[in-house]
Amino acid sequence: MVAGLFILILGFLAYYATRQWKAKICENTRLQEQLTIARDSLQLLKRQKDSLSDVLFDEQLFSLSYNDEAMDYLDKYYPKQKDWNAFIVDKLMETNLQKGDNPLIPYAGMYGPLKIYKARVLNHKWLIASFTDGRAWGEALMEYEPVGKDSVRFETVKAVLYPL
Fold this sequence. Notes:
The protein contains three helices and four strands, in the order αααββββ. The protein is an alpha+beta fold. The longest helix has 60 residues, at 2-61. It starts with a helix and ends with a strand.
């Protein structure tokens, strides 16, 4: 009877140990799968970071804010401004305040007045601007020159209106 009880207890312990062992194997497998997913996600994030670094470099290539020579030129001849980029874009956007089409855009709006809605200052002489009338849109390359401490002269070099 004692031997039978001993065998029964040993069987229960073996069964319990086997269940614990299988549970640990399942948990280990699940953790390894999570680790693989985490490693794959990390690799993806590294590739995205590298891609964003490339985009940032490209964005800086034609940007007044990252062009030291252009900034030095503006600061030398027009030393009063703190943020040249914002100043020039603000002055450009003020040209939208006139009634009707913006005078810098060499096209007539078809669905309303053409207005500049976005601009990027490329260097100390040029900028590119996007314009729209709400439906039709285009882009213009413009030359600019600060005049005095509070004004900027703009001249459209070339513009394109995209077909609808």
